[in-house]
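To the wet lab folks,

You asked to see what we're planning to order before we commit. Fair enough. Below is the target structure as tokens, and below that is the sequence we designed to fit it. If anything looks off to you, flag it before the synthesis order goes out.
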């Protein structure tokens, strides 16, 4: 997703992207993204006091993201990852209104682990089912747009 967003935002004034993931997965993301985007285009943000590098992909874990003062995104995107996270992490993201992002795009399973669909609706999001997922044997899924 970051690779796609990086390409889509290349022509914009700022293509500063922040990827929030587990530390081990963030390390893998760094290896992959550094190989395709170049080492200067990808940064690890290991501490909330580290600056977010403009024009780069910035990789951090959720603990750093929750404490980072500069993290004020225009858009929050998660394709299934948020609702696969522990409930307390979902609640934290919800309580922060998706880090204050004006625009939200989520893809999520409609199962017992999903704690975001109700609060997302309360924020005025449109929830759209993804019917082909169940045809392919997956749990019922939806997209949420705000």
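Sequence we intend to order:
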């Amino acid at each position: 997703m970051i690779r796609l967003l990086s390409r889509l935002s290349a022509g914009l004034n700022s293509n500063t992207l922040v990827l929030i993931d587990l530390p081990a997965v963030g390390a893998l993301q760094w290896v992959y993204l550094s190989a395709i985007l170049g080492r200067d285009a990808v940064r690890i943000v290991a501490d909330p006091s580290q600056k977010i590098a403009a024009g780069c992909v910035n990789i951090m874990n959720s603990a750093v993201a929750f404490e980072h003062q500069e993290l004020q995104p225009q858009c929050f995107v998660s394709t299934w990852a948020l609702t696969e996270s522990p409930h307390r992490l979902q609640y934290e993201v919800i309580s922060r209104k998706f880090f204050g992002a004006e625009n939200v795009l989520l893809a999520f399973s409609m199962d017992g682990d999903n704690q975001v669909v109700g609060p997302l609706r309360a924020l005025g999001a449109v929830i759209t089912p993804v019917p082909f997922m169940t045809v392919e044997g997956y749990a019922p899924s939806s997209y949420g747009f705000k």
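Structural context that might help your review: The helical segments are 2-9, 23-37, 62-67, 87-95, 117-122, 131-135. The first strand starts at residue 17 and ends at 20.

Thanks,
Computational group
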